[in-house]
TrEMBL record:
<dbReference type="InterPro" id="IPR037185">
    <property type="entry name" value="EmrE-like"/>
</dbReference>
<protein>
    <submittedName>
        <fullName>DMT family transporter</fullName>
    </submittedName>
</protein>
<dbReference type="Pfam" id="PF00892">
    <property type="entry name" value="EamA"/>
</dbReference>
<feature type="transmembrane region" description="Helical">
    <location>
        <begin position="257"/>
        <end position="275"/>
    </location>
</feature>
<feature type="transmembrane region" description="Helical">
    <location>
        <begin position="174"/>
        <end position="195"/>
    </location>
</feature>
<dbReference type="InterPro" id="IPR050638">
    <property type="entry name" value="AA-Vitamin_Transporters"/>
</dbReference>
<feature type="domain" description="EamA">
    <location>
        <begin position="145"/>
        <end position="274"/>
    </location>
</feature>
<feature type="transmembrane region" description="Helical">
    <location>
        <begin position="227"/>
        <end position="251"/>
    </location>
</feature>
<feature type="transmembrane region" description="Helical">
    <location>
        <begin position="201"/>
        <end position="220"/>
    </location>
</feature>
<keyword id="KW-0472">Membrane</keyword>
<keyword id="KW-1133">Transmembrane helix</keyword>
<feature type="transmembrane region" description="Helical">
    <location>
        <begin position="65"/>
        <end position="84"/>
    </location>
</feature>
<feature type="transmembrane region" description="Helical">
    <location>
        <begin position="34"/>
        <end position="53"/>
    </location>
</feature>
<keyword id="KW-0812">Transmembrane</keyword>
<feature type="transmembrane region" description="Helical">
    <location>
        <begin position="90"/>
        <end position="107"/>
    </location>
</feature>
<feature type="transmembrane region" description="Helical">
    <location>
        <begin position="119"/>
        <end position="137"/>
    </location>
</feature>
<feature type="transmembrane region" description="Helical">
    <location>
        <begin position="143"/>
        <end position="162"/>
    </location>
</feature>
Length: 280
């Protein structure tokens, strides 16, 4: 039960990132690039201070930073710049589809293939997510935006897999954020992500970086060693659904039968993949 609650809390934190990002960008309080840079900076500062207060050190020179910080940078850069030209729903489908394929592919190649039940659950959950998020009318995906989102998906999948071997979740996450900051900032500014921000935009970005990203990612690294990779991949399909429900509660967005039925498919697929059958 404790693992379930911690995993659920992590998914809520991930979804809160989407809500905070939308609040900042859609209201005009922040450009996507500026939001991403301040988000990473706030996460790096918060985690570094917490590790220092705990009497620890950031393992910046560890070989784990190659995968952890490198993958985090790839995710942040791809995610922030892709949405400049990509529909939000289609972008989420590309992101989570690539995360699923990458994690299932890597684990299968390393001798940890998912069970048929887990594969079936992942397919059902992703089908429900596609039903919810698929854009109405003709689908037009900007090639550059789609490529950037594919890279973001690969980055997040690698970041998740790397977390399974991180001995200290808080220190490792802090080191990842610190090492990823200059790479992320330089790449986003070079790609024209934009910087314009208001005080409200800064506040939302700091909240996202310090709490729902920094602490949320540290919590994710803490629970990952206790989750099978296939399950870790599948439960993340709940994030867009939680974000949509959060939009209904906090942004006064409308609910629909499509959302309700799609959510049932997502949750049912996750349950099929996660819940173990009891022996008779």
């Amino acid at each position: 039960m404790r693992l379930f609650l911690l995993t659920a809390l992590t998914m809520v934190a991930f979804a809160a990132n989407s809500i905070l990002n939308r609040l900042a960008v859609e209201s005009g309080a922040s450009e996507p690039g500026g939001f991403a840079v301040v988000r990473v900076l706030a996460g790096a500062v918060t985690l570094a201070v917490l590790v220092h207060l705990r009497g620890g050190r950031l393992p910046l020179l560890s070989v784990r930073r190659i995968a952890g910080a490198g993958a985090l940078s790839l995710y942040m850069i791809g995610f922030s710049t892709a949405y400049l030209t990509l529909d939000a729903g289609l972008g989420a489908l590309i992101l989570f589809g690539v995360v699923q394929i990458t994690m299932f592919g890597v684990t299968s190649a390393t001798g940890m293939p998912p069970m048929p039940r887990q594969m079936a659950g992942a397919v059902i959950a992703f089908g429900g997510l596609a039903y919810i998020l698929w854009p109405a009318g003709e689908v037009r995906a900007d090639p550059a935006g789609a490529v950037l989102m594919v890279l973001a998906g690969i980055g997040w999948a690698v970041y998740t897999l790397a977390g399974r071997t991180e001995p200290d979740a808080l220190a490792g996450t802090g080191a990842n954020f610190v090492a990823a900051l200059p790479v992320t900032a330089g790449a986003i500014l070079l790609l024209g992500g934009g910087w314009g921000m208001t005080p409200v935009g800064y506040g939302l970005a700091i909240l996202s970086g310090a709490v729902t990203s920094g602490l949320g990612y540290a919590l994710w690294y803490r629970v990952l060693p206790h989750l099978a990779p296939s399950i870790a991949a599948t439960v993340q399909l709940s994030v867009p659904v939680i974000a949509i429900l959060g939009g209904i509660l906090f942004l006064a967005e409308a609910a629909s039968w499509r959302l309700v039925s799609g959510t049932a498919l997502v949750l049912g697929g996750i349950a099929l993949a996660v819940v173990r059958r009891r022996a008779n």
